[in-house]
Every structure is written in C-alpha cells, then in structure tokens.
Design a protein that fits this description.
- This protein has 176 residues and is mainly α.
- The protein folds into 2 domains: 92 residues, Orthogonal Bundle (Rna Polymerase Sigma Factor, Chain: A), CATH 1.10.1740; 82 residues, Arc Repressor Mutant, subunit A.
- The chain has 8 helices and no strands.
- Helix 5 packs across helix 8.
C-alpha cells in the first residue's frame, strides 16, 4: 500500500517540483529556509493525499499548504518575539556572479516588504509562472482583485527597489 502511495505521490510531484521550489525560494526569504518549507509541505501533502480532490491542481494544493505553514510560522515568531536575520546564503546561486546575487538578494528583500497578498500574487505570477485564473483559485479572490494586487505590488516593488538602490549608491559614495 505504502509503495503504491509513494509512487502515485511522486508521479504527481515530479512535474511540479521546479515551480514549487521557485515559489518556496521566493516566498520564504527571511522567514525560514526554503528547504524546510518544501519538506514540511510535502510531508503534509503525502499524509493527506487521500483528501486531494483534483490531481491536476496538485501544485495549487502544495502552495496552499506551504502558505499555511508560513502563516503559522510567522504567528509563532510573533508570539515568542524572536527575529532571525535573513541569510542570503540560504539561496545559493550556482553561477556565483556577485552582481546577480546582489540583484536576487535585493529582489527578495524588496518582496519581503510588500503586504502578504501582493507578495504572494507577484511570486505566483512573475516567479512561479501561474496564470491570473490559477492565482484567483489559490487566493480565493476575483480576477480584478488579483490584477489589482499585481499592479499595486509591482508599483510598490519598483519604489522599494529604487529606494534601496539609491541608498546603496549613497552608502558606496560615502565609503560606509
């Protein structure tokens, strides 16, 4: 029974692995290691596999689980008032180009400053490649709400990145 269940689970997971990993990497920056989120999400999904109603929506199912795990993690951190520093090394860049690493770090730091629903919509659409309709289902929202979150999120993200870039330039000029 277990072997059959494992094979079926892997059959569902393998095609969505890359997209799910991208989502987790972008979504967890500064909150927890993305590997932990992936592992916890997969464990829960495997245990509750019988509850899956639509196997075609397996990726959405995993994202829903991971979103709840992150929300619970944040609540626990607030309750015990512990803040962990964001460590960029959790997200190794195989190309090792410093400039690219800087840009990725800047993006993740900027994304972390957005409101939760905007951040999630941008990650799902821009990084993970979900369609508006898929995001509507995941966020349980209408099309206009998702589009509005994307537009406002992009606008706010651009402001945050511009501000951070200006700050880095000033910092470099003053020699700090």
């Amino acid at each position: 029974m277990t072997s059959k269940k494992q094979k079926h689970f892997l059959k569902l997971y393998q095609p969505v692995h890359a997209r799910f990993e991208k989502f987790c990497r972008a979504r967890t920056f500064g909150d927890m290691p993305y590997e932990d989120l992936i592992n916890e999400s997969l464990l829960i999904a495997f245990k509750k596999m019988e509850e899956i109603k639509n196997e075609k929506a397996f990726l959405s199912y995993l994202i829903g689980i991971s979103t709840r795990i992150l929300a619970n993690s944040k609540r626990k951190k607030k309750a015990i008032n512990v803040a962990e520093p964001a460590i960029f090394n959790q997200h190794p860049d195989p190309s090792n180009f410093i400039e690219k690493q800087f840009e990725i770090e800047l993006l993740y730091q900027s994304l972390a400053k957005l409101p939760e629903l905007q951040k999630e919509a941008i990650i799902l659409f821009e990084i993970t490649g979900f369609s508006i309709k898929e995001i509507m289902k995941i966020q349980k929202s209408g099309e206009s709400a998702v589009k509005q979150r994307l537009a406002r999120g992009r606008k706010e993200l651009a402001k945050i990145i511009k501000h951070q870039m200006e700050f880095k330039l000033i910092e470099n000029e003053t020699g700090r």
